Amino acid sequence: MDKLKVGDKAPELVGHSINMGSFKLSDLKGKEKVFLVFSRYFGCSLCQIDFKELLENANKIQKHGKIVYINQSGEETTRKFIENKNVSFPIILNPKEPYPLYKAYGIGDCTEDVIPKIRERAMKAREQGIQHGAYEGNEQQCPANFIVSKDGKIEYANYGALDLNEAMKLWVKK
């Protein structure tokens, strides 16, 4: 499974979001750029802090395009997790092996080079009182995030912990 690089054509992403109905990446081609965030599952403390950060910055992010969040949690867990949260972006679930949405984007298990940053983010989550919850999905799964341009090309590819500050540098450019 090859990782995507800047300049690659973004694979089609089709799914039913748990909170906003059907989603098809190609429907946005020529209209909006898309910030794709692939996490593991909502029990994961790393994923919880990433989701919290996305929610806190959603309005600022969505001034420049659309956020799409992909997760391996089940429907019941997801509904419970997002209850009473003002989630303004679609959450697409991909809870079962072989995780086709992850595979299409070259996302597999974490590699040694990303583990230190993941541990650092997980420690930050603990410092904020975020506790690890129930295990779902693939615990070894690497998170990843991408910026897909209006013309359907990868403008940013990050395999590992979400670094919203770094992604935003490119995201806010026209």
SSE layout and pairing:
Blueprint (H helix, E strand, L loop, with lengths): L13 E4 L3 E4 L9 E5 L6 H18 L3 E6 L3 H8 L8 E3 L6 H5 L10 H13 L16 E5 L5 E6 L4 H8 L3
Helix pairs in contact: 1-4
Helix count?
5
Order of helices and strands: EEEHEHEHHEEH
Strand % is 15-25%
CATH class designation: Alpha Beta
How far apart, in Å, are the first and last alpha carbons? Answer: 31 Å
Report on the biggest sheet: 5 strands, mixed
Examine the coordinates and then state which fold CATH places here, giving the name of the CATH topology: Glutaredoxin
Number of folding domains? 1
Tell me the Rg in angstroms: 15 Å
What's the CATH H-level homologous superfamily? Glutaredoxin
Give the averaged pLDDT, no decimals.
93
Percent helix, as a range, is: 25-40%
Principal-axis shape equals globular
Number of separate strands: 7
Write out the strand line-up for the largest beta sheet, numbering strands in chain order.
5-4-3-6-7
The poorly predicted ranges are none
